[in-house]
Amino acid sequence: MPHFALSELLIVVVGLWAARRLYGAGRGAAALALILFSAAAGIGVIRFGLDRDGALIAALADIHRFAGTLGGTAAMMALVYDLLQRRAPNPVWQGRYMAACAIALALALAFPVLSVPFFIWWSVAFIGLAAILADRLRPASGMTPLMTMSIAGLMLVNVVVFRQASWLSVSMSWHIFHVLVAVWAFGLAHLLAAAPNRSAP
What count of other Cβ atoms lies within 10 Å of the Cβ of residue 102? Predict the structure, then answer.
């Protein structure tokens, strides 16, 4: 299945480009999120692109799944952190938030069944914060509130609708999922990197 490596590679390329842009704009947490998604996709590139007899696909299956689920959850946590920083630059909340993230990740590691609920919860939190901050993000990004919400919610819609969709072939489902992840990363780079580092008074 080397064709899967191609759409995974698209995520890596766009994700690393987005991470570089975000880091250059001083958005370290958002850049980390895109690096985590790119790393998971990078494992997919190796898993599918270098396999010759199916052994590598099987050997890296659990690692790839782990990186995609737990890494994806950690990435959404980082994106929520980025938006919280814009809403409340005061560092008082940061320690408590980091502790909550650490506890959630530890629980997801101990009980993998919790990974998806935590991913959904932090995704919804990200969408909610994006909605709250849409007007503040608009002057720098040039995006309307509807565009902001569309970008913020694309990943969750992608996971729910297209990832392992029973109404699509396996190949089509995963390729659509990968392409939309890349589109989402591209949109995030334009939305978050252009926005001001500090919240408006």
Answer: 11
Which of 25-39, 44-58, 68-82, 139-153 bottoms out in mean pLDDT, i.e. has the lowest?
139-153
Spatial neighbors of 101 by CB under 8 A, at least 6 apart, are 74, 77, 81
Q: Enter the pTM of the model.
A: 0.91
Q: What tokens does 117 get?
A: 């609920």
Percent of the chain with pLDDT over 70: 95
Alpha helices in the chain, H assignment, sequence order: 3-24, 28-49, 55-59, 61-87, 94-110, 115-141, 145-161, 170-193
Q: What is the DSSP string of 39-96?
A: HHHHHHHHHHHS-SSSHHHHHTHHHHHHHHHHHHHHHHHHHHHHHHHHH--SGGGHHH
Residue 201: DSSP 8-state? -
Q: Give the pLDDT confidence score for residue 137 in this predicted structure.
A: 80
